[in-house]
Design a protein that fits this description.
It is a single chain. It contains twelve helices and 18 strands. It has a seven-stranded antiparallel sheet. The protein is globular. Helix 1 (2-12) packs across helix 8 (219-228). The protein has helices at 2-12, 38-44, 61-67, 87-99, 151-159, 175-179, 188-191, 219-228, 262-273, 311-322, 336-342, 371-387; strands at 54-56, 78-83, 104-107, 123-127, 134-136, 142-146, 163-164, 198-204, 210-214, 234-241, 243-244, 250-257, 282-289, 300-307, 328-334, 364-366, 395-401, 423-428. The chain is an alpha+beta fold.
Length: 430
């Protein structure tokens, strides 16, 4: 536990045995720190950074670009963005922020929707977008990834070499942003969560020190960062498990049902999920949303079935839903990178555009669907969007992943606390 305690003491500001000063993220300050001028920043930190690094200030177009977030109601503010070019640049910037008692926030793709992010004011943004390394090891069993990689570029780089691994379900989201908290994805039936595939990490602590974190080096931090990693440091590089692709193709079907089919649809979803024993090849999504191609006023239920393999092999899992006579059916057979676009979660799809509007995502886990409750939830959603037209672009997302590899991992081996959840539920605001 020594490394975890050390990291926590640093974060909480216990600078010595006789010092109990708590920094701004945990205790409100009456007086804001005096911020260095642009000139002094350029002279002091600018000269210490690599040639690849850059400083951006308010009023500059690139500053606006780098500080725009996916959800525009999450609005931390910064007086400078440091676009780091190397891992050492991250440590240098953190030490500078610590020297002047300035809050900082490391950013990759800026998809975090935790409300408390907005409490950061006049801080330093540490932008990781240049840390894009993706290098496959000679044995083909691992890849070295930079802290700035995201799902789309990792998936495509691996696919190009006949490899795959765990990743999130939206192409635009940073791999580590989601992965340090868990990292659900369509391959998890085979590979587990994103965090289950982390072999080791280079981490910058809150005092700027660098730590190598693995099962044998700082093992307590290795445990904590896989599930609660956002609280302990900035990941600048990691070694990640990769695998030979299971199939060159994925089959996806999208079916739309009206409200009168809600009960049989969710009964069939419960049969498919089978109390967390759904086959590793299968993924299912359900969505409550307004689809104006079907109705301008009444929401519908969209069901996606993904299958790692052919349409023929997917039939036993798809046919029970087809027998319920959906009002719309679309089928796709694609490579895995194209699955993102087939269901609207690709890098250039609407869901990945920024800013999308307001968003607080508070997911919850279920064991199975309570069908009468799902009926009430659908009706509540339908009533809300009728009474409040501003909510017409919101939806209720229900995700069912195979958990075969997730539940094969000892729950005590990581800080992730939700391996028993069979279904992921969240509301996607407008």
């Amino acid at each position: 536990m020594a490394a975890i305690l050390q990291a926590l003491l640093i974060v909480l500001g216990f600078l010595s045995l006789n010092s109990f000063a708590i920094p701004a993220p945990f205790f409100p300050r009456d007086v804001s720190p005096a911020l260095p001028s642009q000139r002094s920043l350029q002279l002091e930190i600018g000269r210490s950074l690599s040639k690849k690094a850059a400083l951006y200030f308010p009023g500059q177009p690139e500053f606006q670009n780098l500080t725009t977030r996916w959800a525009d109601n999450i609005n931390p503010t910064f007086f400078v963005t440091v676009e780091v070019g190397t891992e050492e640049d991250v440590a240098t910037t953190v030490k500078f922020a610590r020297k002047y008692n300035i809050d900082f926030l490391a950013i990759n793709r800026a998809h975090g929707t935790t409300k408390t992010l907005s409490t950061l004011k006049n801080g330093i943004q540490i932008n990781l977008r240049q840390l894009q390394e993706i290098t496959i090891a000679p044995d083909g069993k691992t890849a070295t990834l930079g802290g700035g990689v995201y799902n789309d570029n990792v998936v495509n780089a691996l696919h190009g070499k006949g490899k795959s691994s765990g990743s999130g379900a939206a192409g635009c989201v940073g791999l580590m942003g989601a992965g340090l908290g868990g990292g659900y994805g369509r391959y998890e039936g085979f590979y587990g969560l994103v965090l289950d595939n982390i072999v080791d990490m280079n981490v910058i602590l809150a005092d700027g020190r660098k730590k190598f974190v693995s099962a044998t080096s700082n093992p307590d931090l290795y445990w904590a960062m896989r599930g609660a990693g956002h609280n302990f440091g900035i990941v600048t590089k990691l070694t990640y498990k990769i695998y030979d692709e299971i199939s060159p193709t994925w089959y996806t079907t999208t079916m739309i049902f009206k409200q009168d089919k809600l009960e049989p649809v969710f009964k069939q979803l419960n049969k498919l999920i089978a109390n967390g024993t759904m086959p590793a090849q299968v993924v299912n999504y359900a969505l409550f949303a307004l689809n104006t191609n079907i109705s301008a006023t009444e929401p519908v239920i969209t069901v996606n079935i993904f299958y790692i393999g052919s349409a023929q092999d997917a039939k036993p899992y798809v046919k029970p839903f087809l027998d319920l006579n959906p009002v719309s059916i679309q089928n796709f057979t694609t490579s895995y990178p194209d699955v993102f676009y087939a269901v609207g979660t690709g890098l250039n799809d609407f869901v990945c555009k920024e800013p999308t509007g307001s968003a607080y995502l508070y997911p919850m886990g279920l064991q199975r669907y309570n069908v009468p409750v799902m009926g009430k939830l659908f009706q509540l959603y339908a009533d809300k969007i009728k009474k409040n037209p501003a909510f017409k672009d919101s939806n209720v997302m229900l995700e069912g992943y195979s958990l075969e590899a997730v539940k094969a991992v000892d729950p005590a081996s990581t800080a992730f606390a939700h391996r028993d959840d069979n279904i992921l539920v969240y509301v996607f605001p407008p």
